[in-house]
Amino acid sequence: MRVIVVGATGTIGSAVVTALSVRHDVVKVGHTGGAFHVDLGSPDSITRLFRAIGAFDALVSTAGVAKLASLDELKDADYQLGLSNKLMGQVNLVRVGRQFINDRGSFTLTSGVLSQEPMKGSASISMVNAGLEGFVRAAALELPRGIRVNVVSPPWVTETLIALKMDPARGMPATIVAQAYLASVEGAATGQTIDPRKLAAE
Amino acid sequence: MRVIVVGATGTIGSAVVTALSVRHDVVKVGHTGGAFHVDLGSPDSITRLFRAIGAFDALVSTAGVAKLASLDELKDADYQLGLSNKLMGQVNLVRVGRQFINDRGSFTLTSGVLSQEPMKGSASISMVNAGLEGFVRAAALELPRGIRVNVVSPPWVTETLIALKMDPARGMPATIVAQAYLASVEGAATGQTIDPRKLAAE
Question: Hey, what domains does chain B have and what are their CATH numbers?
Fold first, then answer.
């Protein structure tokens, strides 16, 4: 399969690229790195991306920005960032990409554990992540030609926790998280929120 | 208690006003009707509303607009309407209102059954409703002074189904749905998504 990975240079994205590359032809997309570039906050940029890449069989997005900050600190612009970038940016990958994707193709987006397991500071991120999961449940009912859409809700990733000088013991290595994306791309599920912790426990 | 009801003239809102009025002093707010007016899509309008009303003990919102339309028909502006009105409008009622609410006060917002039980045409609404539930789970962790926040996820309301010439048998009367809002205002729950069907079955 020809698989686009948006966010290919990120911690999870690069692990997904490695996992997919064993069996698939991967097209790497980054904000500034990768073979192609996209600004998720810009619908025009997304349209230009798909026109440049052409037909494909699957798209994985591990991209999108939203702000972690206390309820007191979060400003209007911080909420808008999450809504226009991580939420609508990924929604628009599906809305625009479905015109270019091959029959029986799939989209796999990324939300995150804070959707269902919030923490102080996650009001905007929890909102955005849960919104993505709601969109995916509904959009799956309407995609034509056997096209599927899922969202992976990753737990904290070990590499991220180390970078943030937090306890890595509560994290999951990116290589294990990547298996959830592989399951979405190669499996038959649609409309699902995939939790890599449940998948790893099976 | 002094309880603000935003959306007081709507189908659910007017039933909530009736239920609350037995024991509480209700301040009715509508888009054009009610004692006070607000445009949920405008943060300035929300700030003016709270300045005009002053201190209060609870706020219930049964307001907010989002578009039901197929994935093919939903335009950028349709998604933005739901995000700026039903989602951020209600989020902003909490963000601004918490500066005016009394100790141990509560906010009760409205999502809807399409969050978890989507149908064709609900991509934008399911996204918005799920986003509200995610925000409420997270914001509840940070509200000071014993302030609570919940969201009621109403099923289809009988009166609405009749108005839409749909089968009313699958709906719940607004008076029963209103009990879920009363439970949120008078109870101790916070961060919860309250399903009136589960409450009625208890």
Answer: 2-201 (3.40.50.720)
Asked whether the beta carbons of B131 and A130 are under 8 A apart, the reply is yes
Contact across the interface for B128 and A132, Cβ inside 8 Å: no
Residues 43-102 of A with CB under 8 A from B: 43, 70-72, 74, 76, 79, 83, 87-88, 91, 95
HSE-up of B189 (CA within 13 Å, CB side)?
20
pLDDT tens string A42-74: 999 999 999 999 999 999 999 999 999 999 999
pLDDT at B34: 74
Smallest CA–CA distance, residue B139 to chain A, in Å, is: 5
Neighbours of B21 (CB within 10 A): 13
Tens of pLDDT, residue by residue over B13-48, are 999 999 999 999 999 999 887 789 999 999 999 999
Question: Contact at 8 Å (CB) between B134 and A127?
Answer: yes
SS3 content of chain B, % helix, strand, coil (to 5): 45, 20, 35
The DSSP annotation for A70-114 comes to -TTT--HHHHHHIIIIIIHHHHHHHHHHTTTEEEEEEEEEE--GG
Backbone torsions φ then ψ of B138, nearest 5 degrees: -80, -45
- Please state whether the predicted TM-score (pTM) of the whole model is above 0.95: yes
Residue A20 has pLDDT above 80, yes or no: yes
Between helices A88-97 and A123-139, what is the axis angle to 10°?
20
**Which three-class secondary structure state does DSSP give residue B90?**
helix
B109 chain-A contacts, CB cut-off 8 A: none
Tell me how far CA of residue B40 lies from CA of A14, B47, B81, B143, B152, in angstroms: 41, 10, 11, 21, 18
Inter-chain touch B79–A88, beta carbons under 8 Å: yes
Residues A173-192: tens digit of each pLDDT: 999 999 999 999 999 999 99
What are the backbone angles phi and psi of residue A172, rounded to the nearest 5°? -120, 135
- Report the distance separating Cα A159 and Cα A13, nearest Å: 12
Residue for token digits 């335009």? B75
Nearest CA in chain B to A192: B116
